[in-house]
Structure formats: structure tokens, C-alpha cells
Write a structure and sequence with these properties.
Strand order of the largest sheet: 2-1-4-5
Largest sheet: 4 strands, mixed
Shape: globular
Radius of gyration: 27 Å
Number of strands: 10
Helix content: 40-55%
Length: 466
């Protein structure tokens, strides 16, 4: 295309070299970037691949990947270059996939912070993301009919709040002991042969199975070095959440067969029982099933039978009041939130007030929206008091010079001699932020009028909207 500069590295991971159209006749070569709508998919046998590669499905996949944006993969192609690439290479790409010659690129391994460590994500190339998304769009309706009603993660019209509300209902019914099961590094330890076996029970088009298998075997690039992936499902691609649900649906069916009450969100599982003894028996037998039948690993150090008050699920914990199951925020989630506020109100990050206000607004709104089911008015009141003290500390440091501090205190109504005394204080920023002089000048109302959002205000607004 004229004037187009496509960022693709010159190493062995060039995406266009992966398309091999030779020696195949009669392949579908139509692919349009249009506004076509996706049609319903019913077929599971031979011809399923053609449905995946249909113009409507590929177009919907392209639009989803473009909407989600995201970082480039190993070939360095950005989402902005995707449309031009697909228009130019569509025939070769589709022909290559149908001929079974397409080889997905390795994913680029990155690490993101996680509670008690780091989580490894694999970033596929943007072209591979389109293909994975196309596969997911066709397979999801097929598997939705099979999935358990007690599974809530990565499914249409299901979310974490519904999973938590189901836990509440079960606790209200008297299920007050939880088998808190931790699957050790689930995405990294999935047995690929077992997953392919499970997939083959529903998908009868061997070409689709083969394509998925090639994605599992594509490998990763870590620090510019290639590593094979003999086990696991790389996190980060559009296909991995569906594959994880397909694998763990085997566990769901076993739990239903045994009559257990449970709630699962992705690999986060809570099995609820009425007695500690029954919970211990359930845990013992299920560990054997998970490890021997599903070939997954249970983290025995983190898995335990606990009273629901000590359970942690999706950042929440539970309690019972007047016979009703209730939700509160788990202490670890509170500490994580406070650490984030410390980061956003750091005195040394060099941010201006506009940027700080916007970052705080976005974080507080998102946090409250997620945790709004919890009983937390007292917690938020205490948090706001601490949070405002941090804001006053930032303001005090921004004033820097003694003369500036004095002048601003006078503007805020402090007598000149008092302003001079406090401007010359040798006490630290955190101590001064809690002083009478700042509490009566940088008041709650003034902070609010300046554009700072408080947790309690956001929480009460969220409650009113519901």
C-alpha cells in the first residue's frame, strides 16, 4: 500500500512468511473488512473450519481485536497496521490455514505484578489474535450449552458479581464451610494432550483441532530466546479463557455428579459445605480427581477447608448476619487498594494535580464499582480520612518554599502570624498533613471542590444508581 510503513522485524517471525498458499486448490479466498453481522453456528463436524474462516466471522474478529488494541507480538506489528496487512495477505492467510500449513508465531512473554509474585502473560501477534478470536466466536456458542450453571468466568452475560451473589445464597442456606481450592499455576500446567482429548469429544473437524494444537505448541519468546511449550495454555490470547473453561468444565461436571454446591470463576473455585467434616472429605477426594484424572496440580499449601469468614473469593470475604449471607472486602484487597492510593499520591512521582486527580478518579470509580456489593461504609469512611491526609501531604510539599506556604495559608484564612509559624515548621510532611492548620484550610469541601473524588461519595452514588 502507498505510504504505508509496517513495523515488522526482519527475523524469523515475519507473519507474512507464515502463509503458504501453494499446493492447495479450491480454498476460500474471500475475506472482507465490512460491517457484516455474525451468524449463528451449529455445525461441529467437517466444515467447522470454513465457518471460522467465513467473511462475517473474520470481520467480527478483526473488529474485536482492533477495539481491544493491545501490545504488539514478536513480529512487532501494531493493531493500526492490521487492516492493511489483512487486505494484502487475506488470500494467502486463509489458504494456508485451510491447507493445514499455517504456523502460529510464538507469543511474547511478559510479566505483570500479581499478589505474592508475578503472572506470566503471552502476547500473540495481532494476526494470531484475529484467528484466535475467530475460533473463539464459533466455539463459544457450541460449548455454552455444555457449561455448568455454576461457572461464571469469561462467559457471555455472566460476571464476578453473579458468582459472589450465588455464594451469598448458599451461605444463607447454611453452607458455611468452604473448600478453598487453589490450582497451582493452572494456565501453565494444563496437560495439552488431555485438553485435546476433551476438545475432540465435541469438535469433529480435525483441522480445527490441529489448528488449536498448533497454537498450544507455538512456544514463547523470553528475553529474545525461543522456549517450547509442551504444557500449558498461554494467558493473554483470546482463545485461552475459552480453553480454560472447557478444561475446567470437566471438574464442574464431576462436582455436579457428586451433588456439591460450588461456584467457579475461571480457575478460582469455592466448594461450599454444611459441615467441616463433609468439606474435608470433599477436598480429599477432589484433590485425587483433579490430579489423577485432569492431570492438573493442586497447591496443597494454599488449599484448605475454612469457615466462610476466612475464605477469600474474587477479592471478597463473607460473613453471616441474622441468618443471611453477607459480603465484605477481604483484608488483602484493602491493603492492595491502599498500596495503589499510596502510589497515586506519591510525593515524588512528579505528577501535576490534573494528572493525579484523573488517575485517582479512574481508580476509585473502578474499585468502588467492583466492590460495591460489600458492606463497607465504615471502611470507606476510615479510608477517606487516611486518603485526605495523603492529599494534604502532597499539597504541603507542592507549596515547597516557606514564603509560598505562608502566602497560601493566609489566602485560606489563617492569620499572618499563625501562617508564618506553621510555614516554618520542622515537622515532617505526614505529621503536618494531620495538623489543625491544614485540616481547617485544605478542608474536605475544598478538596472536593478542587476535583478530588472520595471513596464514600462514589460508593453512595453507585448505591443510588442501583
Amino acid at each position: 500500500m502507498k505510504g504505508r510503513k509496517q513495523k515488522i522485524s526482519q527475523d524469523s517471525y515475519r507473519q507474512k512468511d507464515r502463509a503458504e498458499p501453494e499446493d492447495y486448490v479450491g480454498a476460500q479466498t474471500c475475506m472482507w473488512i465490512t460491517e457484516n453481522n455474525l451468524t449463528s453456528i451449529e455445525q461441529t463436524g467437517y466444515g467447522l473450519l470454513e465457518q471460522i474462516l467465513s467473511p462475517a466471522n473474520l470481520n467480527a474478529a478483526y473488529k474485536r481485536v482492533k477495539q481491544n488494541k493491545g501490545a504488539a507480538g514478536v513480529d512487532e506489528m501494531e493493531v493500526e497496521s492490521l487492516k492493511d496487512y489483512l487486505i494484502e495477505q487475506k488470500d494467502a492467510l486463509i489458504t494456508s490455514i485451510q491447507a493445514g500449513k499455517y504456523r502460529p508465531n510464538p507469543v511474547r512473554r511478559v510479566e505483570i505484578p500479581k499478589e505474592n509474585g508475578k503472572r506470566q502473560l503471552g502476547i500473540p501477534t495481532v494476526v494470531d489474535r484475529v484467528i484466535q478470536q475467530a475460533i473463539t466466536q464459533v466455539l463459544s456458542p457450541l460449548y455454552e450449552r455444555q457449561f455448568s450453571a455454576h461457572s461464571y468466568g469469561f462467559r457471555p452475560k455472566r460476571n464476578a458479581h453473579q458468582a459472589l451473589q450465588q455464594c451469598q445464597r448458599l451461605i444463607t442456606e447454611g453452607y458455611v464451610y468452604a473448600v478453598d481450592m487453589d490450582l497451582e499455576k493452572f494456565f501453565d500446567t494444563v496437560n495439552q494432550s488431555k485438553l485435546i482429548e476433551v476438545l475432540s469429544r465435541t469438535i469433529k473437524d480435525g483441522r480445527v483441532i490441529s489448528l488449536i494444537h498448533r497454537y498450544l505448541k507455538a512456544g514463547v519468546i523470553v528475553a529474545n530466546k525461543f522456549e517450547q511449550t509442551a504444557v500449558g495454555v498461554p494467558q493473554g490470547g483470546p482463545l485461552s479463557p475459552l480453553l480454560s473453561n472447557i478444561m475446567l468444565n470437566e471438574l464442574d461436571k464431576e462436582l455436579e455428579k457428586r451433588g456439591h454446591r460450588f461456584v467457579r470463576y475461571a480457575d478460582d473455585l469455592q466448594i461450599l459445605c454444611k459441615s467441616k467434616r463433609s468439606a474435608e472429605r470433599a477436598m480429599e477426594s477432589l484433590v485425587r480427581y483433579i490430579e489423577n484424572k485432569l492431570l492438573l496440580k493442586v497447591n496443597r499449601d494454599k488449599s484448605a477447608v475454612v469457615d466462610i469468614k476466612k475464605a477469600k473469593f474474587l477479592g471478597y470475604s463473607f460473613y453471616k448476619m441474622k441468618g443471611e449471607g453477607r459480603l465484605r472486602i477481604h483484608p488483602k484487597s484493602v491493603e492492595k487498594m491502599r498500596n495503589k492510593i499510596r502510589e497515586l499520591t506519591s510525593r515524588s512521582n512528579g505528577w501535576g494535580n490534573a494528572r493525579r486527580k484523573e488517575a485517582l478518579k479512574q481508580y476509585i470509580r473502578g474499585w468502588v464499582q467492583y466492590f460495591k456489593l460489600a458492606d463497607m461504609k465504615r471502611l470507606l469512611s476510615d479510608t477517606d480520612e487516611w486518603y485526605r491526609r495523603r492529599l494534604r501531604m502532597v499539597i504541603w510539599k507542592q507549596w515547597k518554599r516557606i514564603s509560598t506556604k505562608q502566602a497560601n495559608l493566609v489566602k485560606l484564612g489563617i492569620p499572618e502570624y499563625k501562617a508564618w509559624q506553621h510555614a516554618n515548621t520542622r515537622k515532617g510532611y505526614w505529621h503536618t498533613a494531620n495538623s489543625w492548620i491544614l485540616s481547617t484550610t485544605a478542608t474536605n469541601t475544598r478538596l472536593r471542590d478542587a476535583g478530588f473524588l472520595f471513596f464514600t461519595d462514589c460508593y453512595l452514588n453507585a448505591r443510588l444508581l442501583n
